[in-house]
Design a protein that fits this description.
alpha/beta, Rossmann fold, Arc Repressor Mutant, subunit A, five-stranded parallel beta sheet, four-stranded antiparallel beta sheet
Length: 229
Amino acid sequence: MPQRILLVEDNANLAEGIDYNLRLEGYEVKIAETGRAALEMFEGWSPELLVLDLMLPDIDGYQVLRNIRARGSRVPVIILSARSEESDKVRGFRLDADQYVTKPFGIVELLERIAALLRRSAKAEAASPPRVVQFGAITVDMASRTVARLGVACALTPKAYELLLALIRRDGAVGSRSDLLKEVWGYGAFVMTRTVDSHIAELRRKLEENPAEPRHIVTVWKVGYRFVS
């Protein structure tokens, strides 16, 4: 089955060019010209990747991305934007975009980024641990993408959840900060190693009985982190 890509772009000429090249690569493509149309298509079509413009005629791309992540979706998202300021990129990544590509861009580079994200997504799905993981008072349900502590739901940000899965998949092996960045945020993400530390702090705060003395999300000094069940 061809992989489904939702292209959210109000510039008809640009959308047509991207659509043409994506179809040449064998993808199934739908185009949304507004943010609200994108959310409707996303809900009804379940694309496997979004290419998302920021400047849309109704709600902007940031609002679209925030809405999608609030639904618990981890579908890969590539932001396309003429905004090249660092603050715009940081805002996009804080909303859990996977890539940020500034206009003008090369179509070959965009196609490579899309292919890499889809490969990574498929690999993560194939390498998923058992559908329910329990440690201490915590239950992680992979099917519903939920985490609970003593039966009470724990609200994790999408990236914190992906980081937790990345640690669990290692089955006790150490994950370096750089490896975790690549796995969770992607090779081209505009983030630094302290991003991993801040999300580890979130996991400990919400999942550990004593965040100051963690039993399950353990620091390996000068190396990274590992998961202890």
